[in-house]
Amino acid sequence: MSTATTASVSTHILDTSIGRPAEGVAVSLTARSGGDAEWVALGGSATDADGRCKDLPALPEGTTHVRLDFETEAYFVSKKQAEAQQDAPRVRDSGAFFPEVAITFAVVPGEHFHVPLLLNPFGYSVYRGS
Questions:
Q1: From 19, 28, 51, 121, which residue has the greatest number of CB atoms within 10 Å?
Q2: Which candidate, 33, 10, 26, 25, places its Cα nearest to that of 79?
Q3: In this model, does residue 99 exceed pLDDT 80?
Q4: Distance between CA atoms of 107 and 97, rounded to whole angstroms?
Q5: Domains and CATH numbers, the chain
Q6: pLDDT in tens, 54-67
């Protein structure tokens, strides 16, 4: 939960190739306080059956930038989603053109930032949700 001095972050993933939440995707959270500051690993989680990470670590006071790293390759290997798309070309043995997705964004104290990832084997999109 955010306070006046901190921001908070949440995310979820929808696998748009099947129209379902992406379960079991590892997500790590890093943060920094200022554009020139070092990134600090805060921890991680994995998406649940609804594609949501409900237990991401809290952001430290003074956080200005956040990075969410999604380990997408393992998800596509385990689900074999790329093979299920008969019209899609095979890119690699792993079935994932993007083996990982890193999203970096700015935050301000006192606000909540929900950043959904819309994912498929050959592309992705993100936005600031609510």
A1: 121
A2: 25
A3: yes
A4: 29
A5: 8-126 (2.60.40.180)
A6: 899 999 999 999 99
